[in-house]
TrEMBL record:
CDD domains in the cross-refs: siderophore_interacting (cd06193)
Family from the record: Belongs to the SIP oxidoreductase family.
Species for this entry: Cobetia marina
Name of the protein in question: Siderophore-interacting protein
Domain FAD-binding FR-type residues, every copy: 4-108
SUPFAM superfamilies: Riboflavin synthase domain-like
Length: 249
């Protein structure tokens, strides 16, 4: 696999979107080398470590893209990681190295009903998916946030019902998100699923959806963006082991 393209971008401004989400707008002279149409694609933020050590990378989503800028949304945690610490202290003129973009992961639009689900880490990608759904789309979007102050106004088709799940304490077993999805009326016809959340929630949700519906792989995207108690490297290893187990079953 080819290494992602690296470019240095500049902080243009920062904006508090909600209680626990901060938007950093990036631009600068290298922004023109970023391909067009990358909203919802992932990028790697690169953080230098000690001499002789490999840089640390953290994965984020392009929320908006304009001709000379991109927006990247950061969830602000009490136990902040290197990326959210950087974002909280970022000021106009600061620079950051990014890698990518990687491929966009959009919900399959060729469906009768749609189900989108995720926690706040997936909210940027869910927002892009909702905005790109056809105007007559029907279904549900369930978004888990830590506080009612984190509810956002999102562009979405009238036939997609938004459900905001308030959960201040992430559950390693993933029950809050699972229980909300399971409580919804059964969707009909060809169903398309897009979900991304914490690792435990992902596994619980994936198992429920596979038991409840017959959904072809082309219409089924369920992934984890993080794992409680693990760094991004630890989460990546857990995802690899989970994928191997899934393939073996």
């Amino acid at each position: 696999m080819a290494k992602p393209a690296m470019r240095d971008l500049e902080v243009i401004r920062t904006q508090r979107v909600t209680e626990h989400m901060l938007r950093v707008t990036l631009g600068g002279e290298n922004i023109g080398s970023l391909p067009e149409g990358q909203e919802s694609a992932y990028i790697k933020l690169v953080f230098a470590r000690g001499e002789g050590e490999r840089p640390m990378m953290r994965t984020y989503t392009i929320r908006h893209q304009r001709a000379t800028e991109i927006d990247v949304d950061f969830v602000l945690h009490e136990e902040a990681g290197p990326a959210s610490v950087w974002a909280a202290s970022a000021r106009p003129g600061d620079s950051i190295t990014i890698g990518g973009p990687g491929p966009r992961k959009l919900i399959n639009m060729a469906a009768d009903s749609f189900l989108l689900a995720g926690d706040m880490t997936a909210l940027p990608a869910i927002s892009v998916n909702l905005a790109e759904l056809p105007a007559d789309a029907r279904g549900h979007a369930i978004i888990e946030v830590p506080d009612a102050a984190d509810i956002q106004t999102l562009e979405h088709p009238l036939g997609i019902e938004l459900h905001w799940l308030i959960n201040p304490q992430p559950d390693p077993e993933g029950q809050p998100l699972l229980e909300k999805v399971a409580s919804l009326p059964r969707l009909e016809g060809q169903i398309s699923v897009w979900a991304a959340c914490e690792f435990g929630s992902m596994r619980a949700l994936r198992a429920h959806l596979k038991q409840t519906y017959e959904i072809p792989k082309s219409h089924f995207y369920v992934s984890s963006y993080w794992k409680i108690g693990q760094s991004e490297d630890g989460h990546k290893l857990a995802k690899q082991q989970d994928a191997e187990t899934e393939q073996a079953d």
